[in-house]
Amino acid sequence: MFAIDYAIVVVYLTGMIVVGLLMQRKAEQGIESYFLGNRNLPWWALGASGMSSNLDISGTMIIVALVYAIGAKGFYIEIRGGVTLIMAFLMIFMGKWNRRAGVMTMAEWMSVRFGNDSEGRLARLITAITSIIGTIAMVTYFAIGGGKFLDEFLGIPALFGLPGAFWAATILIVLAMIYTVASGLYGVIWTDVFQGILIFAAILYVVVKALSLNIPETFSVAMPMKDGTFSAFPTTFAEWSNLLPRWRLNINPNSDYSMYNFFGVLTMFYIFKTIIEGSGGTGNYMIQRYYAAKNDKEAGYLSLFWTFLLSFRWPFIGALAVWGISLGTKITDPEMVLPVVVNTLPMGVKGFLIAGLMAAAMSTFDSTVNAGAAYWVKDIYQVYINPEANHDQLMRHSRWSSILIVVIGLGLMLIIKNVNDIWAWITMSMGAGLIIPQLVRWYWWRLNGYGYAIGMGSGMLAAIAWKAFATPAMPEYYSFLFASIISLTGTIVGTLITKPTDDAVLQDFYNRTRPFGFWKRFKMTLPEKEVKNIDKENKRDIVSTFIAVPWQIVLFMFMMNIIFKVWNQFFILLILLVILSIGLYFNWFRHLSTKPRIPRNPKVKPKKYKG
Fold first, then answer.
1. Cα 108 vs. chain centroid, distance in angstroms?
2. CA separation for the pair 328, 318 (Å, rounded)
3. What is the DSSP string of 37-84?
4. 111: closest CA among 512, 395, 487, 459?
């Protein structure tokens, strides 16, 4: 980098810290302010922040690598997590259900669902612990990708036996931690909004530049091999840019990417996994924005805005992949397409784009750490260690828990080296271990806190065991099956051998959230008019979800295809997008409500369960 590039980066970093620190006074009003912004943040800021948080360096490097090496079909592989398809479910019903609970964290949500006795406390504790572990894993993931990217430009030498990538990641994370620790969610949201502007400017530059590039009809792409080397494989532009999915791919069996040869099975598996995950909700920084929303309507607005902004990631991905192909033999490692492309930029532009990508990394990191620290403060320290903690003690633990999470995550970076490796474990193994109890909690009244806690605990242990003992050659869907089956078994057995949750707790939960599923005995205690309104809303949400999922997929593919300039695909996707958008408007958007009626005192009490 040249001096002007460093100057641009320094100005950006200084601006981030200043914006974050300006929010410190608001954040110090209490933990409700520190972690949720007093539920008074505008929906557009929450949505813009969510987009910035989803667009991280590590994930971008992985997705660019897949699209570069496999072509447009790499999009389908990232349905496993990179497409963020869970947004369709959050937009239609999961976001408002969570907002109606009126809690600060997913762990606190367990008290609404299972009560405050032993089962509720156990479920809350297990959720807090698994969420903190997940946060540390995500920090490690960000550190690996961010360090690998920045090390290409900062040129930091190895110090004290630690590689330059570690110190590059440390610089990035420490700077983001300054305003995150100081100003909580206020700092996170408003720095994310500012960073989002910078990210969009970077996307615009890369997209415009890539549109001027001409890709030859035949070319070669680099792929990682199982022995740790990289080899070039020939392809054609017609095949590479084709978005139509195939049942099988023809990737060299000696390549690491040969696991994707069973493409049809994997794609269906990823979609199945996403449907389960979306129907069960999410945690950490994504769900935190819904807890911070003002009401149902704003939860819907922020979801729509978040998804729309996130769609601009895909022309960025496509542009980087096209640019990487145009560089020919300069690309040897697909995961290095992003830094190699940035390294070809002229003076000044390079610094600007690096600042934009640093913004993407820092916005994801700050959101994750802030949400993770909430579990320690709200669900462990305040509940089990010091229930009488005063304002100063809670704020002190909010900040120190953030710092400790970061330190542990950075330490694990020295053990885990591969970005795709840690991402696959987070999405396919750890996620699988938690997905079943998180799904069942919404739809089956009989699930109790003990069954939930046993399912979550056994699933997390299964994921950790898989990471420790499984060989790299084992397909990632094996890890999903292993962790999810163990978690499912633990959930069912734990539930059936223990008594049900108290009916009064379940009735209050249903009155607040009104989910669809096996809740008839609680729904029927409500007035007939209320039951009809609930049924109407539930049916509308189910139909809308079947529209929203393909709408999001088509929107993202349409945006990426603009870069490929394959016009027959362009017009087909455009027509589908218009039709799905019209359906979404009439069946969902126009029905969004600011203050839905929440019945609190049903006239008829449900009978106690005697099974």
1. 20
2. 16
3. GGG---HHHHHHHHHHHH--HHHHHHHHHHHHHH-TTHHHHGGGTTT-
4. 512
Q: Which domain holds residue 470?
A: 3-591
SS3 label, residue 425: helix
Total number of domains in the chain: 1
Kind and range of the H or E element at 558? helix 528-564
**Alpha carbons within 13 A on the beta-carbon side of 582:** 5
Q: Decide if 516 contacts 560 (C-beta within 8 A).
A: no
Could you tell me if 266 and 425 are in contact, meaning their C-beta atoms sit under 8 angstroms apart? no
User: Domain for residue 69, yes or no?
Assistant: yes
Helices (H), ranges, 216-295:
237-240, 263-280, 284-291
- The answer to whether 171 touches 379, Cβ cutoff 8 Å, is no
Residue 266 falls inside a structural domain:
yes
Asked which of 110-114, 245-249, 498-502, 511-515 is least confident by mean pLDDT, the reply is 245-249
| Helices 391-413 and 164-211, axial angle in degrees (round to 10) | 80
- How far apart CA 378 and CA 387 sit, in angstroms, is 10
Question: Residue 599 falls within a domain, yes or no?
Answer: no
What count of other Cβ atoms lies within 10 Å of the Cβ of residue 168?
Answer: 22
What 8-state DSSP symbol labels residue 592? -
Q: Please give the Cα distance from 576 to 584 (Å, whole number).
A: 12
pLDDT digits (tens, 9 = 90+) for 442-459: 999 999 999 999 998 888
What is the CATH classification number for the domain harbouring 477? Answer: 1.20.1730.10
- 3-class DSSP state of 234: strand
Residue 606 lies in a domain: no
Model pLDDT for residues 5-62, shown as the tens digit of each residue: 889 888 888 887 787 777 777 666 777 777 777 788 899 999 998 888 787 777 788 8
Q: Is the pLDDT of residue 510 over 90?
A: yes
Give the C-alpha separation, 438 to 506, whole Å.
16
Tokens at 533, concatenated: 């309104």
Q: Name the token pair of 12.
A: 């950006």
